[in-house]
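Example 5.3 — Alpha-carbonic anhydrase domain-containing protein
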Amino acid sequence: KDRSYWYYQGSLTTPPCSEGVEWFVFRNAITMSRQQMNLLVKGLSRMRYASESGRMTYRPALPLYDRVVTLGYPDSEHYASLDSTREVSSAVQNPRKVVFVAGADGRIGQELVRSLQKRGVTVRAGVHNLNKVRGMFGGGVSVVEFDVTNEVSKLQRAIQGVDVVVSCVGFRPTYIQETDRILSHEIDNVGNCNLISAASTASVGEFILVSSLLTTAPKDNLNRKLLNALGNVAEEKRLSEVALIESGLNWTIIRPGVFSAEPQGEIILGNSNDFTGGTQDRYLGPRVRCQSPFMATSGTSCAVTRAQVAGVITDIVMSSNAYHENRGRVMEIVARPFNVKSLNDI
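Solution (predicted structure tokens):
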């Protein structure tokens, strides 16, 4: 195949190569700067390949962090690893940042605040109701009452002085069609657009928007139609994505797939529409069995946990300002069992 597997994982593990597949395994993946990609390719070019017939492919839009990469080639039991820490250590720094988390009282927001706290990041949590979050967060987190439907000037005051804004806001379905349509428009679209405008006015360094898969899928895509049954939410989220892209801010759009309570496998990161419909079959390989009933209709990917998504966002936040030259990208997130077993083999 001419596609690569890109795995996000918390620790370095070397699995057996799938037949005919070229892949790379990354530890603690985040967005790679152009400078780091050049260093990586330079380092890999000096390596002696385990397979003379092996052909390295890479996609510069996808990530690397912790300067450790493992690569494998088809039908080869040999692996090579590159540690380019010495070359990029001067380029990669993690300055202390102040991060504003909008929707910190939501399920993704709570996971993100905890993840950022563990990494020593200063967090300002924007919540809808202060009374409901007392004791929710530990020390070191300042909590402010925050509603994205407020006027831009009020939102600007809430985020003044922060380095990064992460929007985890989204409407909570009532399953009443007209009510959901109104809420989705006010929160996922207009509310996020207000926050983007406030961040631009406040000269925030970076904006990370948690959106959803399928926002740019074809109109006739079945999964997109099902998602839009909840308040036309795919359309509304897409409008906020466009507003961010056109804002002039350094931006990252995170598009997770469906959520599960327990991990279904390792995270796989992709570009826009990599994991939409039949495209998944070309990127991800054979159908797999997921522990959760929630999986892609193609059967090639599984649900992700909110904690996994929060971990990816945290790694993006922890990247240095050197990444800003490459900032302005979409990262789609799905999961897949690491030791792949095809449904045909079960």
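Remark. The chain is about 30% helix and 20% strand.
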